[in-house]
């Protein structure tokens, strides 16, 4: 305010008092008229700025300057004064939100749109052009997300992993052509997908197992782990391929571990079944579709001396002449033992 802008001097072809000029300006709260007298006595009209301009509120003014001579009757002339207010970078960019939030599945393809930020600048030209960038963020985040400097689109730049990091918080910057800035916060929640199969680990295995082991003997203890969360990480276990066994399952969802003791639930007889049992432990999670993990267990049942020898006959009757020579074979008896190895070897007495 107070700045002066010279205006054109009017000319009058008359002489004397008929050529003496006075000036008038359309009433305006922003501008007034002042007269500056030159050394030759001529008066120079000047436009005086009375208050600060704001191009964003009013970008132009239309005024009328009137010159009146001193004749009787007076004669006048007018000229239109158009004032264009040019832009100054007096407005910073402003984000439409202070915090932007988004939820993204962890299995989205690289290059997927996460969210779009928007900032406006009331200035024009280069002063009003906004460019977007990340604030002070770690290099690891720049490997996962990128931003288009002109559109404000935030897209994935790398593979996301809920199990590695489930939430990201960072700042974005909007900068105009004159260097003024604004900032916003971005919060991105990664949603878990069922991308991890259950993992089965054999913690202990009692092998071989004697056939006379008591019912309820723990044969193996397994650990089942699923790195997903929620239903995707809830594990149910199933045992296949081993008759006469059952699995008791204990699930600890906080640490996502499933401890599975495998027990014999009926007597096992090595004489009537295979020496080796092969079974497959399968764990399935609650995802849709479900993912499964398997572990193969081989249990060998060893013989116990649980069978007595049995004669082929309960009683043998032999008729022997009294003059039979010493050392003669009178009768041959036979016996069988269902056990094997040393347990099945028979001695007679």
Descriptive report:
1% of the residues lie in helices and 43% in strands. With 349 residues, the chain is an all-beta fold. It folds into 4 domains: 3-84, Immunoglobulin-like; 94-191, Sandwich (Immunoglobulin-like), CATH 2.60.40.60; 199-302, Immunoglobulin-like; 306-348, no CATH class. Strands 16, 18, 20, 21 and 22 form a 5-stranded antiparallel sheet that branches. Strands 8-15-14-11 form a 4-stranded mixed sheet, with no helix packed on it. The protein has a 4-stranded mixed sheet with strand order 17-24-23-19, with no helix packed on it. The termini are far apart.
Sheet with most strands: 5 strands, antiparallel
Helix amount, in percent?
A: under 10%
Number of DSSP helical runs: 1
Structural class comes to mainly beta
What's the CATH class label of the largest domain? Mainly Beta
Q: What overall geometry do the principal axes of the alpha carbons give?
A: rod-shaped
Secondary-structure element series = EEEEEEEEEEEHEEEEEEEEEEEEEEE
Q: If you average the pLDDT, what whole number results?
A: 85
- The count of strands amounts to 26
According to CATH, the fold-level topology of the largest domain is Immunoglobulin-like
Subcellular location: Cell membrane
Keywords: Calcium, Cell adhesion, Cell membrane, Glycoprotein, Membrane, Repeat, Signal, Transmembrane, Transmembrane helix
Protein name: PCDGE protein
GO molecular function: calcium ion binding
């Amino acid at each position: 305010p107070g700045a002066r802008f010279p205006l054109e001097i009017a000319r009058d072809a008359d002489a004397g008092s008929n050529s003496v000029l006075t000036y008038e300006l359309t009433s305006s709260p922003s501008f007034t008229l002042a007269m500056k007298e030159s050394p030759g006595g001529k008066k120079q009209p000047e436009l005086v700025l009375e208050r600060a301009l704001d191009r964003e509120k009013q970008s132009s003014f239309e005024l009328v300057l009137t010159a009146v001579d001193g004749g009787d009757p007076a004669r006048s002339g007018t000229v239109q004064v158009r004032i264009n207010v040019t832009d100054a970078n007096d407005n910073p960019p402003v984000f439409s939100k202070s915090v932007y939030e988004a939820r993204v599945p962890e299995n989205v393809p690289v290059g997927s749109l996460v969210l779009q930020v928007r900032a406006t600048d009331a200035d024009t030209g280069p002063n009003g052009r906004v460019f977007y960038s990340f604030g002070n963020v770690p290099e690891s985040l720049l490997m996962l997300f990128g931003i288009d400097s002109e559109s404000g689109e935030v897209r994935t730049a790398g593979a996301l992993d809920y199990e590695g990091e489930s939430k990201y918080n960072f700042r974005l910057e909007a900068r105009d052509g004159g260097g003024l800035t604004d900032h916003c916060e971005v919060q991105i929640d990664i949603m878990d997908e069922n991308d991890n199969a259950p993992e089965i680990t054999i913690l202990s295995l009692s092998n071989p197992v004697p056939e006379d082991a008591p019912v309820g003997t723990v044969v193996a203890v397994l650990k089942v782990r699923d790195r997903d969360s929620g239903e995707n990480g809830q594990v149910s276990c199933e045992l296949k391929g081993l008759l006469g066994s059952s699995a008791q399952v204990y699930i600890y969802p906080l640490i996502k571990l499933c401890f599975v003791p495998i027990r014999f639930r009926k007597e096992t007889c090595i004489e009537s079944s295979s020496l080796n049992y092969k079974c497959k432990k399968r764990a399935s999670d609650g995802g849709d579709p479900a993912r499964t993990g398997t572990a193969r267990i081989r249990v060998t049942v060893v013989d116990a001396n649980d069978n007595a020898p049995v004669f082929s006959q309960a009683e043998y009757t032999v008729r022997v002449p009294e003059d039979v020579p010493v050392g003669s074979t009178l009768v041959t008896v036979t016996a069988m033992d269902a056990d094997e190895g040393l347990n099945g070897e028979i001695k007679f007495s």
